[in-house]
């Protein structure tokens, strides 16, 4: 092996061994509840002060990109579900959209299919944000919100299971259509859920969002300035928490989103500095409200002009052979965690892509952690990691 | 700024040899940049008030197959104020010798997010980035042999004496 390629590893080993004499090297994870999965943070600490954070990832690497090179586009969809397993619908939606655009069939997708896609994506986004909020409460030491969030998320899981047959990994959105139409009665059940869930959000806000203990733990902690966020490629609630109105649902206006009316919540620094943990948390809470608004609008249309008809077939536009024209294409969309992108390289001859790269939002979002967690207390580091809202399945792919 | 205007801007600034060509066949046009100039080009595109590509969406390492023996990096830039996107590509030939990896300049000095993305490209494709501050493997263990996303990669049978099945 060329010496040049070993240089960085040797430097790193030297840094850790010399830090071990002066300061303390502390491993947080990979089996630590506040790292939200199998993330290992190597901390170089001086007492309670964190001097440096070195994240180690890859414990959940499942070779998504290698698998995608040997499977057809349609067969890869279940693998995308397993990336961000808390918001599977959003993943497959992004992937499917990219393939459809490359095939040139994205304009032929029936409106009802597009609305169902947005409906399930927004339901899934609520589920994902509920986990983010609930587990963030646990990180800070509040146990009850976690149980409440999981209780409400269970309704969403139940509904999506009803539609797709699976609780978490749906394989529901297909290239050119859907697995099945929504089951009869889904819209009514969904409306029931929205009516049930709205007051629950108020309860949650009373319990956690405006809780003085919670505010003291999160305000002015882990401040992420806007320019740093952009330079580190942060997206989603991370970037919006820093006060930038950047939402790809609005910017790119894909699928049915241009026809829906919704606001983009941004951090305002209400409780402390702009871009602190509380702002990022609040953006997620506000996004749940906006998602509920979108769901109601989708339901309105799905029950009126786009009503279910006996002859409607969500698989009608499914291509017989998924062979896109020879080209490269990068598709991006707003996943639950931020900008989710897929880069395809198609050779125009086979159903199997030559290269697929997944741009996972958690990956870029976490890479900013060493920058914002320098010189903080260990307890604040826990608060900061929680506010990033990572999903390791997506980070490691 | 349109794609042609950006091409013109770069030619005026750095001379004609900085752009090796363009790809306009697909839905997204791409600029082929000469590998040595990629850092300067990115810096110019980020700082120029007319382009302002301040967001690096994605960085992909690519192995173009065993016949071509070419490796490349694809950059997807986005401009937040102008809401535009741009694709840059660099590539060079390489003999696939593991002691002589294809080397490109690192753009971590322009976009800090490139840090982890370049580590990933090094880890999985085996592309070396000159001037990267900390080019260690990121997803695979430090002592992993070979680069799995290369087209000629043979699946490892043993890891530390343990059979993989």
Description:
The complex is a heterodimer of chains A (397) and B (165). Chain A has 397 residues and is mainly alpha-helical. Helix content of chain A is 51%, strand content 11%. In chain A, the strands form 3 sheets. Chain A has a 3-stranded antiparallel sheet with strand order 1-2-3. In chain A, strands 6-7-8 form a 3-stranded antiparallel sheet. In chain A, strand 2 and strand 3 (49-56) form a beta hairpin. The mean pLDDT of chain A is 88. Chain B has one domain (3-163): Beta Polymerase, domain 2 (2-Layer Sandwich), CATH 3.30.460. Chain B is elongated, with a radius of gyration of 17 Å. Chain B starts with a helix and ends with a strand. In chain B, 40% of the residues are buried. The interface between A and B is large, with 46 and 46 residues.
Secondary structure layout plus pairing:
The complex is a heterodimer of chains A (397) and B (165).
Chain A: H1 3-22, E1 24-28, E2 40-46, E3 49-56, H2 64-68, H3 73-81, H4 88-103, H5 111-140, H6 144-164, E4 173-174, E5 177-178, H7 186-209, H8 212-218, H9 226-231, H10 237-241, H11 248-251, H12 277-303, E6 327-334, E7 339-346, E8 355-359, H13 361-367, H14 369-372, H15 378-388, H16 392-396
Antiparallel strand pairs in A: 1-2, 2-3, 4-5, 6-7, 7-8
Helix pairs in contact in A: 3-4, 4-5, 5-6, 5-12, 5-15, 6-7, 7-12, 12-15
Chain B: H1 3-14, E1 19-23, E2 30-33, H2 38-47, E3 55-63, E4 70-79, E5 84-93, E6 103-105, H3 114-124, E7 128-130, E8 158-159, E9 162-163
Parallel strand pairs in B: 2-5, 6-7
Antiparallel strand pairs in B: 1-2, 3-4, 4-5, 8-9
């Amino acid at each position: 092996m060329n010496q040049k390629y070993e240089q960085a590893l040797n430097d790193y080993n030297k840094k850790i061994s010399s830090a071990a004499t002066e300061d303390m090297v502390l491993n947080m994870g990979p089996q630590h509840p506040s790292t939200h999965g199998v993330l290992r943070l190597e901390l170089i600490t001086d007492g309670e002060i964190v001097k440096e954070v070195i994240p180690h990832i890859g414990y959940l690497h499942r070779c998504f990109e290698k698998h995608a090179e040997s499977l057809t586009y349609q067969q890869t969809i279940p693998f995308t579900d397993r990336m961000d397993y808390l918001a599977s619908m959003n993943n497959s939606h992004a992937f499917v959209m990219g393939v459809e655009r490359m095939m040139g069939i994205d304009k032929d997708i029936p409106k009802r299919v597009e609305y169902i896609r947005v409906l399930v994506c927004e339901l899934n986004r609520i589920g994902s944000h509920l986990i983010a909020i609930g587990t963030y409460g646990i990180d800070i030491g509040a146990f009850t919100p976690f149980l409440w969030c999981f209780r409400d998320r269970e309704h969403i899981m139940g509904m999506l299971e009803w539609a797709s047959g699976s609780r978490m990994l749906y394989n529901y959105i297909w290239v050119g259509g859907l697995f099945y139409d929504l089951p009869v009665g889904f819209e009514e059940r969904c409306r029931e859920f929205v009516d049930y869930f709205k007051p629950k959000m108020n309860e949650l806000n009373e319990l956690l969002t405006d809780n003085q203990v919670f505010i003291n733990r999160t305000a002015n902690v882990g401040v992420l300035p806007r320019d740093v966020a952009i330079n580190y490629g942060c997206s989603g609630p991370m970037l919006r928490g820093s006060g930038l109105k950047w939402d790809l649902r609005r910017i790119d206006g894909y699928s049915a989103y241009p026809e829906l009316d919704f606001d983009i919540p941004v951090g305002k620094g209400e409780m402390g500095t702009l871009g602190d943990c509380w702002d990022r948390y609040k953006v997620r809470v506000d996004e749940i409200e906006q998602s509920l608004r979108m769901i109601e609008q989708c339901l309105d249309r799905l029950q009126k002009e786009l009503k279910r008809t006996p002859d409607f077939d969500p698989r009608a536009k499914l291509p017989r052979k998924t062979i896109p024209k020879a080209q490269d294409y990068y598709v991006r969309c707003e996943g639950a965690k931020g900008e989710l992108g897929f880069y395809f390289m198609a050779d125009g001859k086979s159903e199997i892509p030559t290269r697929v790269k997944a741009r996972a939002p958690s990956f870029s979002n976490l890479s900013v952690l060493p920058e914002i967690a320098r010189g903080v207390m260990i307890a604040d580091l826990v608060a900061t990691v929680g506010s990033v809202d990572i999903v390791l399945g997506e980070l490691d792919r | 700024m349109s794609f042609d205007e950006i091409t013109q801007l770069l030619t005026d600034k750095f001379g004609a040899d900085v752009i090796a060509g363009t790809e306009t066949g697909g839905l997204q046009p791409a600029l082929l940049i000469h590998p040595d100039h990629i850092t300067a080009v990115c810096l110019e595109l980020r700082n120029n008030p007319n382009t302002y590509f301040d967001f690096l969406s994605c960085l992909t390492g690519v192995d173009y197959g065993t016949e071509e023996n070419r490796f490349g990096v694809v950059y997807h830039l986005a401009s937040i104020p102008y809401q535009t996107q741009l694709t840059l590509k660099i590539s060079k030939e390489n003999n696939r010798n593991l002691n002589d990896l294809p080397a490109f300049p690192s753009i971590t000095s322009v976009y800090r997010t490139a840090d982890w993305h370049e580590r990933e490209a090094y880890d999985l494709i085996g592309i070396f980035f000159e001037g990267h501050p900390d080019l260690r493997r990121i997803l695979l263990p430090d002592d992993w042999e070979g680069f799995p996303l290369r087209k000629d990669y043979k699946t490892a049978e043993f890891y530390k004496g343990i059979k993989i099945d």
